Amino acid sequence: MASGFDVSELWDPAVRRDPHRFYDRVRDAGEPVLQIHPTGERWWVIAGHADVLTGLRHPAIGHEIGRHCPAARLTAPHELSEVARLEARQLINLDPPDHTRLRGLVSGGFTARAVARLEPWISDLADRLVARARREGIIDGIADLADPVPVNVIAELVGVPEADRPRFRAWSAAIVSASVDGPAAVTEFGAYLDELAARRRADPADDLMSQLVAVADRDDRLDRDELVALVQLLLIAGQETTVDLIVNGLRLLLSHPEQWQALRDDPSLAPAVVEETLRYRGPVEIVPPRYAFEDIEIAGGRIPAYDRVGLSLWGANRDPAVFDRPHEFDIHRTDGRQHIAFGHGIHFCLGAHLARLESRIMFDRIARQLPGLRLAVDPAELDDFRLHHTGLPLLV
Ligand code: HEM
């Protein structure tokens, strides 16, 4: 095992404040680094760009450990709570063949073309948020700009009627924040989705719910739990991540005044802001940990069967073998496209086109309509990891 590492460093508050130093050391170690999760699970951390890609493509690394390890207890679905049952059926937690089947049923709704149809609707939402912010002297970049975008977009995509949106927002907030109300929200939200499915069955519309209901009815390829789990996953996977991207992009721009000026001079740089924020400070630090299904040789070392594999996107996206000056935020860089902030392989983010579209529109509108925007606090005081709790105070 690589020397010089304490086995619980990854969760140490000091490392939390600056995980990049840790990932640099993991990369330099030249082999996977063992960390013991607070639950006692053994995680092998991998942080090099090429090695993380290998891990994401590896046929013996995956989620459904119960199908490989005789000792892993498989609880019968009827013994599980609704929350646990739905989670186990989520696309992101499945391997082929179930993963392939479910993903095939929904991927058509998330292609670049399908998502582009939402552009006028998202632009209109962005214009309204920015216009409201202009009337205020001081705003919160999270509550007033970033937070309302993804939840409304997902509601529009799924086909949640205007009148139901406040309830939809409340459930989504409870589920996404994993608050104590989470389990009750999952159950109520599931019941609401059953009701919405029944409405779309009787009266189909041009939305994702109508498509899913048609698929479920046509040849039994999607059952009720899978349908509910999928819509819940869209919320969980798409809300915090997109808010995080918009807010961190804003924070980084406003603390690099020459790059903020460049965007205001030329708003066509908005996609470059999106990509560099994804690379430099993407919303996902480590992909949901996988299992090694057998002993595997990877990243210069060996991971024993049934241990966890922790593939670090933050490590990969700051690998000096791929990115010049990896620890500098630079929207003008030309090597940024190789970042893997949306993952890679069979679980590559389903919402990548959508997240890119939403954040690009927001950066474009903010640069055009709020040119005087600046941080209301010293950037050094902004603790990256607490942004979600403290807000991002901005002067308009
Ligand atoms: C999967 C990142 C936004 C839906 C993933 C994965 C990453 C990711 C890294 C792969 C996880 C893995 O390999 O285990 C992001 C980032 C986002 C974002 C950085 C925003 C900036 C969204 C949005 C949606 C979405 C807006 C949908 C509305 C999904 C789904 C999966 C996924 C359904 C699972 C795909 C599968 O398992 O096949 N995302 N995501 N994401 N994402 Fe996103």
From TrEMBL:
What PROSITE patterns does the database record attribute to this sequence? CYTOCHROME_P450 (PS00086)
Q: Which InterPro entries match?
A: Cyt_P450 (IPR001128), Cyt_P450_B (IPR002397), Cyt_P450_CS (IPR017972), Cyt_P450_sf (IPR036396)
Is Transport found in the keyword set?
Answer: no
Kindly state which keywords UniProt assigns to this record, in alphabetical order.
Answer: Heme, Iron, Metal-binding, Monooxygenase, Oxidoreductase
Identify the Pfam families for this entry: p450
Q: Which family does it belong to?
A: Belongs to the cytochrome P450 family.
The protein here is known as: Cytochrome P450
Q: Write down the species.
A: Micromonospora qiuiae
